[in-house]
Amino acid sequence: MTQTIAVIRGDGIGPEIMDATLQVLDALKVGLTYDFVEAGLSAYEKQGELLPAATLDAIHRHRVALKSPLTTPVGEGFSSINVELRKRFDLYANVRPAISFPNTKSRYENIDLITVRENTEGAYIGEGQNLTADGETATLVQKVTRRGSDRIVRYAFDLARRVGRKKVTVVHKANILKSTSGLFLKVARQVATEYPDIQCNEMIVDNTCMQLVMRPEQFDVIVTTNLFGDILSDLCAGLVGGLGLAPGANIGTEAAIFEAVHGSAPDIAGKGIANPVALLLAAVQMLEHLGKVSEANRLRQAIIDTMAAKDNLTPDLGGTGTTQSFAAAIAARAAG
To answer: What is the domain range of residue 272?
Structure first.
């Protein structure tokens, strides 16, 4: 059965890593067809809009999108295109796996954890921002709801059960933020009682940061609020070699967007040396979401085997390969 997905080639290195990723997906022969749409700076320059209606319509219609990094112009439009997409499609769950890969610059081995971040509320959304006329005082509204807390914690426990994880760590700051973080923790405790097969523990966010650096192996699935999740997921990426190996899934009930979480890196755009692994790993998440689990496993293993063999690795991984030659090496293994 053929599945059409919306494809956003993005800005900076985005088109290069997207072409590489689609090359590998085509080699897998997973029955995907692509509806290419635009967003970000490239869309703004051509159409005068950061998020054209045709792009939003395509995501709504296909319900699945694969997205390269986007550039939000300074002083123009949305504060963040990614935040706007999450709001538009109610993509409430941000899922960021951090897994060790061979031949990286990581200080750790055998890291295998998942951060599940609430994606649509909390301080990160930036609601109610205000600066007084004299420029001396800035304020921000932080809103956390029972509904938002319930569905993200439930998503984390369901994910843990579905993929065979044994523990969920609820990360909070309820000792100080007694209303917002306190509500999140209270709801998490209630939800956890419905999953007796999954161990649940609680950890204050400061201690979580320290523990991730000291003993990351103690974590399995982390669930937390938006701002904490944004910070912790990047910390977890640092445990396995950086954002070049960090994919992200943004999941809602009506749509899902899969992305490389790093930036558009305009300083190396067009040089053919960008690492496509983050977007390839996002494609792994996408295939799993589409129920193509065996193909997702085959793609993940092809990435691992190519990196283990040091076959055409890009310069950031210590090799001399190009974006396309690295992708070709992965595609050859994925095709079997």
So the answer is: 1-111+240-336
**Whole-angstrom Cα distance, residue 129 to residue 116?**
26
> How do residues 226-265 score in pLDDT, each as one tens digit?
999 999 999 999 999 999 999 999 999 999 999 999 999 9
Kindly report whether the global pTM for this prediction surpasses the value 0.90: yes
CATH number at residue 189: 3.40.50
CA distance 242 to 222: 18
Q: Are residues 10 and 92 located together in one domain of the fold?
A: yes
64 phi and psi angles, rounded to 5 deg: -140, 135
Q: 149 — phi, psi (to 5°)?
A: -65, -45
Tens-place pLDDT, residues 123-142:
887 778 899 999 999 998 89
- Amino acid, res. 325: S
CA end-to-end distance (rounded Å), the chain: 21
292 and 319 share one domain: yes
Task: Show which residues are catalytic.
Answer: 124, 173, 206, 230
